[in-house]
Each structure stands twice: as structure tokens, then as C-alpha cells.
Amino acid sequence: MYQDDALIPTFSRAGEATTARYTQIPDNSMLPETAYRIVRDETMLDGNARLNLATFVGTWMDESADRLYADAFDKNMIDKDEYPATAAIEEYCWRILADLWHAPDRTDVIGTSTIGSSEACMLGGLALKRRWQKARRAAGKDADKPNLIMSSAVQVCWEKFCNYFDVEMRQVATTEEHPLMDGTSLEDVVDENTIGVVVLMGVTYTGAYEPVMKVQAKLDSIQAKTGLDIPIHIDGASGAMVAPFLQPELEWDFRVPRVQSINTSGHKYGLVYPGVGWIVWRNTAALPEELVFRVSYLGGSMPTFALNFSRPGAQVLLQYYRFLRLGRSGYTSIQQASQDVARYLSHEVGRFDAFELLTDGSDIPVFAWRLKPGHTDKWTLYHLSERLRIKGWLVPAYPLSGELEGQTVMRIVCRDGLSRDLAEDLLHDIREETEFLDSLDAPMPHPGLPPAFHH
């Protein structure tokens, strides 16, 4: 007798009546609804993305964006010959960013999309390295020992860049007196082999901006004494999509003469689903021509500068959608709303007897705090992070960098989608769990959650 498998009740069909954890491809096919249910049920144990206050990455877009995303699932960003309109939109986007970042000559500028800021950082680093190598060789000098200067608070992608591309990583350690790289001690690490200095517009650990103008001033002083002309790359993974709207008078971008390139994450405060990043160079001369490949692909010849090849085109379209949908006023409104939530939360957290703020959300909408010295010997911020996770909130606790690595902090990233109502719920849970921990008569019997991923 014929039996329609679709009539078999859910959870008793082949596939769902047995284990869902396949480590070998199954012998037979299954209904699409069955396969969907297996995968969907498996991911039910993931955290709620909207309550993930550790990540900078966007977790919400509107229904029109969702529809546009579905329309473009099949577009390959690398295939500019087959999808010329998508390629044109990519250019529209980096030209919009060049304008936001005050490129001095909008007709002489170059940029590209990337999978995320990590790839964009590596492209920026490669351009710095190649420019330095060309200048050294033209002068008849050795070009085998490049170094790159950065704060000890950089994101791990810079460690990857230096490791993968044979560049010595020289870090300026953060200290209690100098928690940000502000130019102090640069003269001790810069030399003729320095390819550039990386400045962070939004430190991952605390959300604070490093002072670009102070770094430029120190490099100017170094050049006056030594003749070394050191460029700056701005890692604006988050801040490069916040500062143009919330701090438009702040000079950090191409208005600063030494800034040669800027990267950002479209999928952070660019307000797009993961993953898309962007990098723009001050002018075409800042990107060595030999790094741009012209390849024949699917019937066409096209230039490409990327570490990846095939990748989704949908997020590039989503970025353009955001630019069109929101405009300058819309981005300002959203970033301001996120900052208002950050300032509200930081103000309230700062009133707790147990805590002291490191930052308050005045730069990017991110703030961090630590336990007051001597407040308790019964619990740590790792325990508070664990207690909040029980309530569904992902709020990371982790050590700082450099000379501050003995200090543990907690940090909250306020993104589009973290409403004031949710913020009040979060604050209630922080207060309740802090009061619980403060009521302990003896130390917690375990160390709490280990340091969480907080990038």
C-alpha cells in the first residue's frame, strides 16, 4: 500500500525518530520539512541573538531588508561580469564611505568590500607593507624586516595579519595612566622599518576612541627629529560608522593628513547582517597597483583586491539599502538611540556600590566596568556573567590587555534592537544578581564562566 511520508506525524518520521546528530551523510533522502526541523531544533540551544550583549555584530534588520536578502541569496560578489549591477552598488557604497570620511579628492579614491573588518584590516596592512617595501627598495635599502605599531588592545585580527604576512608586531602597552594609545612612547618603537601605526576608533575592550590627532602630533614630532614619515591606518570596525553621525566635528578620518586607509564593519554599526566589511584608501596612490589582480572569470576581465574569492553579494546590497533607507538623519537617529541606551545603562551601573565605570558609552555605544577594589572576596565578574547567562543575557567578563591584564571587566554593547524596555529588564537582572552575590556568606565554590569571546 502506498504511503505518503508527508502524512507521517512530525517527530516520528525517518530522521527525526532517530538521532539528529549526523556525522556521516545519511544513506537516504528525507522530506525538506524533516531536514529543516532537525537543523532548527538543533539550533534551539543557541543563545538569543538579540540578548547577546557581547557582540558588536548586527542581529536585526527590518522586513524589507529580509526580503532583499532573500532576493539576492544567489549573487556572487566576486563575479562582477555576471552581476555588474551588484558590482556597481559595491562601488556606490565605498564612495559613500569615502564621502563620510572626508576623502580629500572624491575622484581619486579607491575602496572595496570585504567579508568583514578582519579581511579589511589585512588588506590595509598589506598596502602599508607593500608601499614601505617599494620605497625601501627604491632607496637601495633592505626591505626584509617590516614592523607595525599598535596598542596592546587591538583586535586579534592584527595579530593574525602580522603572523600571516611576516610583519613584526610592536605593541604599545596600555597602562593605568595611558589606557589608550595616545602617542606616548611611540618614539621608543618607531624606526625605519615601521610600515605604519594602527589607531583604534573604538577599542574592543572598552569602546573608547584612541586620539588620532595626538598620535599624528607625535608622529609629526618624530618625523621632525628623524625624517621618518609614518602613515596611519584607522581600524574603525565600529567607530567609523558612529563618529560621522554622533561626533561629526571629531577629526579622526582623512581630515588627518597621515591617515592613509580606514576600515569598518558594515555588519556592526553599519547595521547590516553579517558579514560585510569595507576599506577605503585616501587616494589611488595609497593602494599599490600590483596588489590589484585583473583576472578572467566567467567570460569577463575584472580587477579584484581581496583575500577571499567567491562570497555573498547580498550583504553589499543590504548595505546600500541601509544607506538609502536611513540617510544621514536615520543613521544619526539610530546611533543616538543606541548611545542613549548605553549612557542610561552606564549611569545606572555606575551607581552600584560594587562597580566603577571605565567608560560610559560617550564614544561608541559601548561601556565597561569593573569591581571596586576591596568590594568583595566572595565573587568576581565571571560569577555575575554566569548568573546573567542563566537569565538569557550574554554579558562578557574578561581581562584587559597590556599592563592592565590583571584587571577583569564586564562590557555591554548597545546595538540597534536593544530598546529602552530591554535595557530596563537587563538593569533589573544585573541589580538582582549583584544583590544575590553580595549576600553570600562564603566565597563562590567555583571560578565562574571562563573569559568569554568579546569581539
From TrEMBL:
Entry GO CC: cytosol
Catalysed reactions, as listed in the record: L-glutamate + H(+) = 4-aminobutanoate + CO2
Enzyme nomenclature, EC number: 4.1.1.15
PTM sites of type N6-(pyridoxal phosphate)lysine: K268
Any Gene Ontology biological process: L-glutamate catabolic process
Gene3D superfamilies per record: 3.90.1150.160, 4.10.280.50, Type I PLP-dependent aspartate aminotransferase-like (Major domain) (3.40.640.10)
Cofactor: pyridoxal 5'-phosphate
Superkingdom as given in the UniProt entry: Bacteria
Gene Ontology MF terms: aromatic-L-amino-acid decarboxylase activity; glutamate decarboxylase activity; pyridoxal phosphate binding
Keywords: Decarboxylase, Lyase, Pyridoxal phosphate
Family: Belongs to the group II decarboxylase family.
PANTHER family from the UniProt entry: GLUTAMATE DECARBOXYLASE (PTHR43321:SF3)
Official protein name in the record: Glutamate decarboxylase
Organism ancestry: Bacteria, Bacillati, Actinomycetota, Actinomycetes, Micrococcales
